[in-house]
Amino acid sequence: MRKRDILLATLALLAAWEIIALILNRDILPAPTDVLIAFVVQLPRGLGWHFVVSAWRVVASIALSVLLATPAGLVLGQYPRVNRFFAPLIYLTYPIPKIVLLPIVILFLGIGDASKIAIIFLILFFQVLVVVRDASTALKPELLYSVRSLGAGRRALLRFVYFPATLPAVLTAIRVSIGTAIAVLFFTESFATNAGLGYYVIVDTFQRIAFPEMYAGVVAMSVLGLALYFVVDYLERALCPYLFAK
Amino acid sequence: MIDIRDLTFTYPNQPASIFDNFSWRVGRGEFWSVIGASGCGKSTLLHLVVGVRAAGTGTITVNGEPVPRKQNRGKTGLVLQDYGLLPWATVRENVELGLRIREFYGQNDHRPPTADGRPHPSISLRSAQDSAVGGHPSAVEFWLERFGLTALAKKYPAQISGGQRQRVAIARTLVLEPDVLLMDEPFSALDAPTREDLEQLTLDLKNETKTTTVFVTHNIEEAVFLGRKILVLGAPPHRSPGRVVENGGAGRAEYRDEPMFAEKARLLREILKEKKSVNR
Predict the structure, then answer these.
(1) Which of B104, B159, B172 is the closest to A159 by Cβ?
(2) Which residue from B73, B83, B130 is spatially nearest to A144, judged by alpha carbons?
(3) Residue B112: what pLDDT?
(4) Residues in chain B closer than 8 A to A135 (CB atoms)
(5) What are B134-150's pLDDT values in tens digits?
(6) When you count CB atoms within 10 A of the terminal residue's CB, does the N or C end of chain B come out lower?
(7) End-to-end Cα spacing for chain B
(8) Which residue range(s) make up the domain with A169?
(9) Does residue A4 lie in a domain region?
(10) B95: distance to nearest CA of chain A, Å?
(11) Quick one: which of A233, A242, A232, A244 has its CA closest to A66?
(12) ipTM for the assembly
């Protein structure tokens, strides 16, 4: 997919939005031009700050989940006995929509950043854990034998085989979870906080009936999701160039 | 060079043993073929010699050192049929891998190049990357050049042919100057012309480096062409003494056209048929 195609698609969406807004001619659907003006005006007046707060929460959750789930997944992938022990637990807890645990998380961690980061962390942790475990167990024994014959012990295998082998899976897990992570963040920011895009959209602008600003908040949240998606895409190309070699 | 004594090995959860008090010696500088039907334990034998599988009982030593060789990492070279290269590393990075592993364990060796001007393979990776150091080509550059891989150095394994991949796999082991080279059906997945080309390359390398080599194959002609001694494995469990066929004519390009070649191939066929019906 070329950048030009993405740009054209964006322009097409904006054009469709503009046309529908003109036809409806109601304040509940401001035109994209009005939203853009609101976006630019509000950025230094609080929207930018809320964006940064939301971005920090999501990025912290992703980083924490990758840092903890990757080694855990590698252990499960390399030690079948450990995997057999934990497999039933993962089987039972993986399908639970982690958002339902939010009240419990808030009870234990309060209403600040920690509970918001924790709930997103829980979602991402299981995603990354399972893909890293599966990628580790899928490694061909022949690959491990030949690298071991070059003198690699367990540490070198981790460094030269297991970690690079599971990297694409980790990035994919993050990419497919971004949408859910942003959605959950949005929900958690809609109460018991005064910072973040969820607060800005649902608590602040919606209740003030400031529709262009509200739409600007929605756009900001979309931009956050897109930006994270592009970052993961970029990381995949930078860290796993072999996947794109012709 | 390779000394296997009273080896017994059984796969976990398998009732029958693969090796039962099996003993075998490979002398320094020898080139052995090992042949047998699929599933008879040929690959397992190599895995045991490398040390990636542990023997049940008995001892295996390579150059006097018990396996796996912790003091001499990478000195037992292993070339497999496939899946041996790192898919995420370039040709050059794959060939360098052994040196990088040595550096990872802090086992660099900064000895100068050998007296005959060939690169000393134990040059550290850092100097291997800077081939201008002392005017001597690094081991990595040397083997890339020797196998015609220099132009492919920045390609990934998925971008090169099967024959080229096997050259990379062999170069990767040779960079560490192994004293033993174990090859597990390395050319089975290749077309006939590429296979014969690589068989000749293997012989040339053997003549140049005098490395003790064990070549596992299920291809009779390949076994006869390469191995001056041929170990024939029947159905497991394998016990001593193993059936060995002397094949002194091997190791020359023209051997394929000689009557002795056909005779040895016929003999091997008969032995394999006989072993198929008898559990030795």
Answers:
(1) B104
(2) B83
(3) 42
(4) none
(5) 344 588 999 999 999 99
(6) C
(7) 26
(8) 50-243
(9) no
(10) 11
(11) A232
(12) 0.84
Asked if residue B157 belongs to a domain, the reply is: yes
Residue B166 belongs to some domain of the structure: yes
Q: How many domains does chain A have?
A: 1
Q: Contacts from A108-113 at CB under 8 Å and sequence distance 24+?
A: A111/A192, A111/A193, A112/A193, A113/A56, A113/A57, A113/A60
Does pLDDT of A16 surpass 90? yes
- For residue A126, what is the domain's CATH number? 1.10.3720.10
Task: Give the residue numbers spanning the domain of B134.
Answer: 73-83+91-178
| Shortest CA gap B167–chain A (Å) | 14
Considering the entire predicted model, what is its pTM? 0.83
Using CB atoms, pick whichever of B78, B87, B98 lies closest to residue A242. B87
* Sheet arrangement for strand B65-66: B19-26, B2-9, B57-62, B65-66
Of A142, A164, A240, which is closest to B80 when you measure between CB atoms?
Answer: A142
Domain total for chain B?
1
What digits encode the pLDDT tens for the residues B226-268?
999 999 998 888 888 888 999 998 988 899 999 999 999 999 9
